[in-house]
């Protein structure tokens, strides 16, 4: 495993905003990338976190093969599954990288999914 990873946060509302700020300060995170469909909130979080990239279209991030992990923090909750699935498929394409996607497992039981070169596994609890 590398000593630092590049992270994307998709959905930077309340929770995703906190996650983005935490990642921005974390020494194990090299590059932070953020996606948010509300331009004013995207700008607000970008000002706070100085990300490597900020976009209103999360699919742009899925095409960035330098990203190792994606936090999905969107609402409404049903948006998690399609974004997680797309993220995993993008990760599977990357091939030689560990690629993990986490929903909001502990608080909402939404699920977690992990893709490695060897396997892609979904473990959704609802
Ligand atoms: N608010 C809390 O106290 C809390 C606590 C624990 C967990 N959570 C979980 O965190 C997740 C986010 O909750 P929240 O309270 O931050 O919600 P929120 O509504 O404040 O933020 C969600 C953000 O996702 C954005 N979004 C929606 N679709 C998008 C897309 N396709 N691409 C990019 N951005 C998109 C919305 O514009 C919004 O800013 C939820 O799963 C929630 O259950 C929230």
Question: How many distinct folded domains?
Answer: 1
Largest sheet: 7 strands, mixed
Structural class designation: alpha/beta
Write down the Rg.
13 Å
Q: What do the pLDDT scores average to?
A: 77
Unique ligands = nicotinamide-adenine-dinucleotide
Strand content: 25-35%
The CATH superfamily bears the name NAD(P)-binding Rossmann-like Domain
CATH architectural type: 3-Layer(aba) Sandwich
Shape: globular
Find the count of extended strands (DSSP E, 2+ residues): 7
- Ranges with pLDDT <50 over ≥5 residues? 93-126
Spatial order of strands in the largest sheet: 3-2-1-4-5-6-7
Helix segment count? 5
**Helix/strand order, N-terminal first:** EHEHEHEHEHEE
Q: Portion of residues in helices? A: 25-40%
What is the distance, rounded to the nearest whole angstrom, between the alpha carbons of the first and last residues?
Answer: 31 Å
How are the secondary structure elements laid out?
Elements lengths: L4 E6 L3 H12 L3 E7 L3 H11 L3 E3 L2 H5 L6 E4 L7 H15 L4 E4 L2 H4 L3 E4 L4 E4 L3
Parallel strand pairs: 1-2, 1-4, 2-3, 4-5
Antiparallel strand pairs: 5-6, 6-7
């Amino acid at each position: 495993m590398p000593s630092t990873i590049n992270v994307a946060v998709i959905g930077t509302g309340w929770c995703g905003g906190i996650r983005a700020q935490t990642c921005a300060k974390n020494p194990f995170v090299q590059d932070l990338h953020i996606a948010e469909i509300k331009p004013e909130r995207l700008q607000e979080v970008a000002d706070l976190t100085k990300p490597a990239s900020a976009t209103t279209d999360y699919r742009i991030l899925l095409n960035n093969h330098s990203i190792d992990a994606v936090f999905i923090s969107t609402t409404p909750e049903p948006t998690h599954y399609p974004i997680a699935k797309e993220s995993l498929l993008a990760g599977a394409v990357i091939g030689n990288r560990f690629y993990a996607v986490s929903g909001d497992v502990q608080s909402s039981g939404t699920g977690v999914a992990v893709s490695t070169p060897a396997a892609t596994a979904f473990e959704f609890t609802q």
